[in-house]
Amino acid sequence: MSASVAHHEEMRTRRVERVLWIVLVLNLAVAAAKFFYGLASDSASMQADGIHSVFDTLGNVVGLIGIALAARPADESHPYGHAKFETYGSLVIGALLLIAAFEVGSGAVERLASGDYAAQVGVASFVVMVGTLVVNLGVSFTERRIGKRLGSEILQADAAHTLSDAFVSIGVIAGLILVVCGFPMADPVMALIVTVFILISAVQVFRRAFRTLSDHARIDPAEISSVVETISGVRQIHRIRTRGTEAEVYVDLHLLVDPQMSVAKAHAIGDEIESAVQAAHPEVREVLVHIEPDTKTERQEA
Fold it and tell me: What are the residues whose beta carbons fall under 8 Å from the beta carbon of 17, sequence distance 6 or more?
């Protein structure tokens, strides 16, 4: 890895860590506000929402651990680096979402089964919920935008986690309004409904992580081909493959050149291809070029 790439990775890691620390502090404040006021007002949905926010903070901690592990340089046992630890971290966040869904859903079912609809709703209830909702939406959208820009699976997973908290808050507010209108059962019912939104967020997080772990193609082969075909000396390109995380992609391809071309010239073309692909796709960390002679046999196998 070149010095410039290493510096870029270090700066990216610092940005991700900084965002996670800020979100951690905000989530702690939000969780405390909702949970303790929920206890004071005996609101099942507010308490459930507070519990979900606690899981948000756990997700931030997991994210910090995951990004710290992912930032470690390649070594003898991990020659491709440790980038997938960020993906593993996002899987843990997905698991936390499932736990949060269970906590919220089971609490709602228990209230419905027991017929305990004792929520006390006042102006302060709406102030707490609307205030925390604004914070959650701001955090989620900002985290998602930065996560996409940096190609961070951790930030995108955590943004989904925080957005699910916002969905819960919206459901809670709707439930509180219905309670005020004379439908006390709405409190646990809304807590049950928002469980579905939490589960949807979990599925999205798992889907993104599994794309990485299953070596899903990261870049359209046609995009790679369009870059390589502009380089002098290239006769044909085929078997283009890409894999890796969103922020760290590995490319390999096969290249047909003049059979009489010197090894030095072919090597120079390979270097030029790597530079061109990385310039077009900054997320590419390595390009492995297989040089082959342009013969009838090789064209048949292409």
Answer: 64, 67, 68
Q: What is the structure's pLDDT at 2?
A: 53
254 strand-pairing partners: 238, 290
For residue range 23-40, list pLDDT tens digits in order: 888 888 888 887 787 777
Domain that holds residue 155: 3-213
What's the pLDDT at 300?
64
* Pair 293, 258 in one domain: yes
Looking at the chain, the whole-number percentage of residues with pLDDT higher than 90 is: 15
Q: Counting Cβ atoms within 10 Å, is residue 191 exposed (0-12), middle (13-18) or buried (19+)?
A: buried
Q: How far apart are CA 153 and CA 25, in angstroms?
A: 20
Can you tell me the mean pLDDT for 69-76? 78
If DSSP codes are grouped into helix, strand and coil, which group holds residue 292? strand
**CA–CA separation, 261 and 273 (whole Å):** 16
Query: What are the residues facing 249 on neighbouring strands?
Result: 244, 284
- Is the pTM higher than 0.70? no
Q: 140: Cβ–Cβ under 8 A, 6 or more apart, which residues?
A: 159, 160, 162, 163, 165, 166
- Are residues 144 and 227 part of one domain? no
Please say whether the beta carbons of 237 and 229 come within 8 A.
yes
- Structural domain count, the chain: 2
Average pLDDT (292-300) is 78
The CATH number of the domain holding residue 38 is 1.20.1510.10
Instruction: Looking at the structure, tell me whether residues 121 and 44 fall in a common domain.
Output: yes
Residues in contact with 52: Cβ distance below 8 Å, sequence separation at least 6, in sequence order: 100, 103, 104, 164, 165, 168, 198
- Mean pLDDT across 138-152: 85
Burial class (CB in 10 A: 0-12, 13-18, 19+), 286: middle
The domain boundary, picked from 170, 193, 213, lies at: 213
Q: Last residue of some domain: 166, 196, 213?
A: 213
